[in-house]
Amino acid sequence: MAEINTKSSLRILLASAEVAPLAKAGGLADVAGALPKALRALGADVCIVMPAYRMILDNPEYSISGVIDTFPVRLREGSIHTAWVRRTSLPNKSEFGNIPVYLIGESRVSAPSAAFFEHATTSTRIYAMEPDPYLFFDRAVVEWVSRINQTWHPDIIHSNDWHMGLIPLFSRQHSSLAHGLHRPKHVFTVHNLEYQGEFGHDQWFATGLAEDLYNLDGLECYGKWSFMKGGLNFADYVTTVSPRYAIETQTPEYGAGLDGLLHKLSVQGNFSGIVNGIDTSVFNPESDPNIFANYSISSHSGKELCKAELKRELGLDTAGHPLVIGMVTRFVEQKGFELIHAAAERLMAMNVQLALLGTGDPRYERFLVELCDRHPGRAAVKIEYNAALAQRIYAGSDLFLMPSRFEPCGLGQLIALRYGAIPIVRATGGLADTIVDLDEDPASGTGFSFSDYTPESLLNAISRACKAMSNKQSRDRLILRAMQSDWSWDRSAQKYLDIFETLSGRHLIRNETGKITV
Fold it and tell me: In CATH, what number is assigned to the domain containing residue 400?
């Protein structure tokens, strides 16, 4: 049986398919790795549960326990798997950083195929394209919670994105969790509505669920069944990752077929948007070990050295003083690459250099390679996942480009602000919630934004940014204002905590000494 910390406090179990720094493929990992620390700082008792990827188990940097529990998990009829649980923790970079992380894996002794999650030897391989790994994991989480219910019963299970979408449903169906004083309340967070975990009806048998759940009020979604629908229909409360995106998803343009359901949840008072934060202990130019020179708000001269060394690393020309525009992103249509493709040659006619990092759609990868070949020394792209290089691009860039077609929240613009790289964004979703256009509000502007999804609007925003950055005084003021922006998790974690407290009926109260009690 798992040994779990017992505190007289609001107990929260966060479930996620990726958690930084243990396994990271995108921004979800940063959220799942940072929010628990912020909640603990507010007085909550937080644990994390995630899949036991091979890349974590094989990493000597992490101290991982032996197996602390095993139990059977039933999927489809006659299909019984053995789940096991091991324990590690998030690296303790602050007094609130030592968060317990429970890893759930699967044992197969005689089966011909590899156990679930054994394929995940790198961050780029953690996701599977079939439902079984996530059906197994979601059921295993619920079964495990029922087994620890007597020693550490979570008041809240916070499931993140479609991979965890069936945890609320399986929990409602579990005999020992469906009733009683300690039935967990479920919060489900949508990180990107475009990815819903949809599978055909021919795979419904894999769920082990009754056919009467294959309907609009269950998991059915336009002739398929969806993990996302499970989270939306069976959680007690649904959030998404910015207030603007919560509004946008209730429209046909951004709702990905679920706008009607989300509008219904909103009217019922069960859906809202909370903007993501960033872990300021990780994204910190004063102490970041991955950048060429550390710098701070009071003295950001080291940023010039970061820029010069980044140019050398990427093979960009070091002569002259062109502005470096950075991008760290997935090379997909959502991120605005239609616009970049259409505007590329006009962009390269400006006095700028491009520093790009990411992977994605092969046609955009080819386009970027060909662009760099046509403009050697002016544009550089690295088609790879490289977290350390990403930090150096943030630190070495003057401007940071995010012209997204839609953006649930975005973390890149928040990290860029922290490192003094001025964001250029399309005013959508979380980008609109977090970046104030300098020309619209000179007193508090932190970047540049545009609304129309056209190459001309993109180029106009870049031109305005270049003009503002050409004046040293205005540039220094803008960089200072950007670096002073507070996008830590403090405010957003409190908003999550408010929801958790309301659902659970358990409230954290500070006494006269400042200590948090229940």
Answer: 3.40.50.2000
Find the radius of gyration of the CA atoms of the chain: 23
User: What six digits make up the tokens of 286?
Assistant: 């004063």
Per-residue pLDDT band for 514 (boundaries 50, 70, 90) equals: very low
Q: From start to end of 284-336, where are the E strands?
A: 323-328
- Residue 217 structural domain: 11-278+490-517
pTM over 0.85: yes
Task: Name residues whose C-beta falls within 8 Å of residue 55's C-beta, 6 or more positions apart in sequence.
Answer: 23, 120, 121, 122, 123, 126
H-type alpha helices, 115-155: 132-148
Identify whether residues 274 and 326 lie together within a single domain: no
CA distances to 15, 28, 333, 339, 482 from 402, in Å: 28, 17, 12, 11, 16
What's the number of domains the chain is made of? 2
Place of tokens 């995010």: 402
In a domain, 296, yes or no: no
Lookup: tokens for 186: 């479920």
Residue 450's DSSP bridge partners are: 426
Which tens digit of pLDDT belongs to each residue from 320-377? 899 999 999 999 999 999 999 999 999 999 999 999 999 999 999 999 999 999 999 9
Question: What is the SS3 assignment for 54?
Answer: helix
The structure tokens listed for 76 are 């489809």
